[in-house]
């Protein structure tokens, strides 16, 4: 909203300095700072309100050190995370940008679903919360919505990287006027496509419609079905992985901030014509605006870490974890980097796999030997390290280092051919 206000003041009254909000970098920095201030500044009052309303965490006794002390800690802190994202985005982003609209809808939808889950646990005293089938339904709905937008919205288009390379070789895009003219031309000539980035394959990209090539002529019109399936799987995998990672103080929100930082950089590159040419990536017109959303997301996560770091004053609950995971998944899908999540969100993936491996190995050995056996002392994986006697802060710090290394490796892959 402030973008349009300052743009109007500059055009109509020539207000000095108002034009600075045209720059994505400036608005991203402002979004990050405001988000951080909202969560840190109002977090204390929000926590006191949660305590007053007796909205506390009910902790199951798993025999972990320090677990009993967490009983009654305020939960549903994800509400302040969502506020820290939505408010700065509404103020500093171009809210008519289709990518911003999709991310806001995703945030509110998954946040509401997580809130309902927490509400059932806290106020209905049902530890199971929202039934899995309803969670799945909610993720499918947002998945179909995002897929429809990606496939059918006239505002979501890409420019083939071969055309980007050809244009940049014949024009001096270092000149500001040429660069802006090129961006306008590329936006007009961009096309609908189901192409996406995939590292370590030919041309560093794949076309989802090619999966259906066996159907014969006209197979391209069914590409939407493949996109829907991919979007739903990504949203489910990252949301659930994030939810499982939220088991010890500060772990989930810190790892998410690191992953969000890498995605912000990738969004900025994907919306910059010169950088897309240099890195040989798909150019996505107007996607750079997601940098503002990404900055608000990182600021909100960092601000929440102020209250959630060990010993935690508040937990995010499913309101936060389901929402954060969904944001990361959809963000990556929109910038056509969803396959990089396997590396970038390696911590979430490992946590997910540890639960799956533990469960199915236990069932298999029980059926075969009559007694279930375990691969880990406890799953998810962070609980395994707790039972090995490692303190929570040390586990979190080491997971942060792993997440940071994975984020750096993810950025490096975009230049590897």
* Helix percentage range: 55-70%
Average predicted local confidence, pLDDT: 85
Termini separation comes to: 41 Å
Q: How would a crystallographer describe the biggest sheet?
A: 2 strands, antiparallel
Order of helices and strands: HHHHHHHEEHHHHHHHHH
Q: Could you list the spans in which at least 5 consecutive residues all have pLDDT below 50?
A: none
Supply the key terms:
16 helices, 2 strands, single chain, mainly alpha, 417 residues, 65% helix, globular
What does this molecule look like?
- The protein is mostly helical.
- Helix content is 65%, strand content 1%.
- The longest helix is centred in the first third of the chain and has 29 residues, at 24-52.
- It is globular, with a radius of gyration of 23 Å.
Entry summary:
Helix content is 65%, strand content 1%. It has 16 helices and two strands. It has a two-stranded antiparallel ribbon with strand order 1-2.
Give the topology.
Blueprint (H helix, E strand, L loop, with lengths): L1 H12 L10 H29 L25 H15 L5 H26 L8 H21 L8 H10 L5 H14 L5 E3 L7 E3 L15 H23 L5 H20 L2 H7 L10 H19 L8 H18 L6 H4 L1 H24 L11 H7 L4 H22 L4
Antiparallel strand pairs: 1-2
């Amino acid at each position: 909203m402030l973008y349009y206000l300052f743009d109007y003041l500059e055009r109509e009254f020539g207000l000095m300095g108002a034009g600075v909000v045209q720059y994505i970098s400036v608005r991203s920095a402002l979004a990050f700072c405001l988000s951080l201030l909202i969560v840190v500044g109002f977090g204390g009052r929000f926590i006191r309100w949660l305590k007053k309303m007796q909205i506390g965490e009910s902790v199951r006794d798993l025999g972990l050190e320090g677990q009993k002390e967490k009983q009654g800690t305020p939960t549903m802190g994800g509400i302040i995370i969502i506020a820290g994202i939505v408010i700065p985005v509404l103020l500093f982003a171009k809210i008519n940008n289709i990518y911003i609209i999709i991310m806001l809808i995703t945030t509110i939808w998954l946040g509401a679903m997580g809130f309902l889950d927490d509400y059932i646990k806290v106020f209905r005293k049902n530890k199971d919360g929202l039934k899995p089938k309803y969670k799945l339904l909610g993720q499918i709905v947002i998945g179909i919505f995002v897929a429809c937008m990606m496939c059918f919205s006239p505002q979501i288009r890409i420019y083939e990287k071969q055309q980007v390379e050809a244009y940049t070789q014949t024009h001096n895009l270092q000149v500001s006027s040429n660069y802006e003219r090129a961006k306008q031309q590329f936006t007009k000539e961009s096309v609908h496509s189901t192409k996406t980035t995939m590292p370590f394959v030919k041309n560093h990209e794949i076309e989802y419609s090619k999966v259906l090539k066996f159907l014969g002529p006209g197979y391209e019109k069914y590409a939407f079905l493949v996109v829907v399936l991919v979007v739903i799987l990504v949203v489910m995998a990252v949301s659930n992985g994030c939810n499982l990672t939220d088991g010890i103080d500060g772990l989930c929100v810190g790892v998410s901030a690191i992953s969000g930082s890498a995605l912000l950089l990738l969004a900025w590159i994907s919306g910059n014509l010169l950088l897309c040419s240099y890195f040989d990536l798909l150019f996505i017109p107007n996607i750079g605006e997601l940098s503002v959303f990404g900055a608000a997301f990182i600021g909100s996560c960092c601000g929440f870490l102020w209250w959630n770091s060990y010993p935690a004053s508040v937990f995010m609950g499913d309101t936060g974890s389901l929402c954060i995971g969904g944001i990361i998944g959809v963000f990556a899908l929109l910038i056509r980097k969803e396959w990089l999540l396997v590396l970038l969100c390696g911590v979430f993936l490992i946590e997910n796999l540890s639960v799956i491996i533990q469960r199915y190995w236990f069932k298999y050995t029980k059926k075969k030997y009559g007694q279930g056996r375990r691969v880990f002392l406890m799953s998810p994986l962070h609980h395994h390290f707790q039972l090995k006697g490692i303190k929570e802060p040390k586990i979190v710090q080491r997971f942060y280092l792993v997440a940071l290394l994975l984020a750096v490796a993810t950025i490096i892959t975009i230049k590897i051919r």
